[in-house]
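Ticket opened by: R.M.
Priority: normal
Category: complex prediction / small molecule

The reporter submitted a protein together with nicotinamide-adenine-dinucleotide and asked that the result be attached to this ticket for the collaborator who will pick it up next week. Submitted input follows.
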Amino acid sequence: MDTKISSKPSAAPVVAKTAEHVEAHDENPWHQAMEQLDRAGKAMKLEPFALERLRHPKRILTVSVPVKMDDGSVKVFEGYRIQHNMDRGPAKGGIRYHPQVSLDEVKALSFWMTMKCAVVNLPYGGAKGGIICDPKKMSKGELERMTRRYTAEISIIIGPDKDIPAPDVNTNEQVMAWIMDTYSMTIGYACPGVVTGKPIEIGGSLGRKEATGRGVFYVTRELAARRGFDLRKAPIIIQGFGNVGSNAANIFAEHGCKVVGISDVTGGLYDPKGLDLHDIMLYREKNESVANYGKAEHVPIDKFLELPCDILVPAAMENAITKSNADKIKAKYIIEGANGPTSNDADRILNAKGVILVPDILANAGGVTVSYFEWVQDMQSLFWSEKEINARLQEIIVGAFTEVYDLHEKEKVDMRTAAFMVGLRRLGKAASIRGMYP
Ligand code: NAD
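Result attached by the on-call engineer:
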């Protein structure tokens, strides 16, 4: 995340965006996710039993989170933890702090985690959590108290063998450390395996912070090899300059690629000759955003995705690409660093234009893969070198990409459908082997 946890006092009331609000835009993430499931289920003739199971999250917990604010008042936040599916192992998925968190959004994100873990064949099911809040308007103390109370509320369903949270939008290593500490205090001993994305000092893994961005790079490199283009000559633009976007940008640049555009919530920067990412990172360390960076052209947020480029990496929020801008996108390849950045309507428009899109459940799976490594290391109390972690990550991501790309070619379906088919095959088998209780 790029949000430095600020020590400024809370200034404005917390804004909640309801599920109805999201639905009003006809881009409800849960509806989108279920349409994707139906499309792939139909293409592969998945057993109705398996399909029906996946339409219903296994467990939904809504909690109220009372927090004493710095001004002495008490504010009650609404939070969720959803375990979508646990047929293949414990549930796994991040925790998001954002004003637009809604139950349907968390449901969709938990479902995509189930799919993602199945696509890259990790022994996990899917989960997600979130709190409706605006962390940018909260002090560090308020964030800590909110995180600890939320952890206490969801501690009845999380645990290293049950459900293991991780960072997502606006949550970071510090938030994971508070979760680990709160859970450990409750059970009476240190339990690093309850959460991933922790600081190294308390059982975190080398390479975790960069893992999602690194996975984005690996799938793009594989795509270039399969499509026969030179990645170093393909201009790249990246929306979102948080954990996923900034690490992806740096890793592309380290490999000699040309990142011509980056953006955050305040706006975009563009330089057709390639941005100086090192300089932008230094600038960002001292400033909350890239808004006033002086050495590149500034582009308004609503025009950013339409910039000239070959590769577009949306790495911010859902519904960045919709039917209102899909036609204006110039990229030939889209690599979904974010979860759910492309609406289904936009998918259809892009497919018709011949754009190749590597879907979220494959493109951003590097994060959960190294989270899995972190959990394995915690369980064994035996830690690996960064070289070993990156080598194992590469093997898993390249293997999953190959499986999905081959199926996309063989079945003549888009890559999202192919990725769903790969994941659903594993999920369908697990469900039928386990059978139904009672
Ligand atoms: P983050 O909080 O670190 O960063 C989010 C970034 O998006 C920030 O730079 C923010 O300014 C920017 N942003 C928000 N709204 C924007 C907008 N409308 N236009 C442009 N930029 C905007 O979050 P993150 O962890 O990088 O997550 C980003 C996406 O990647 C989310 O969809 C998340 O679910 C997904 N993801 C994250 C991980 C992970 O390991 N962190 C793993 C897989 C997927």
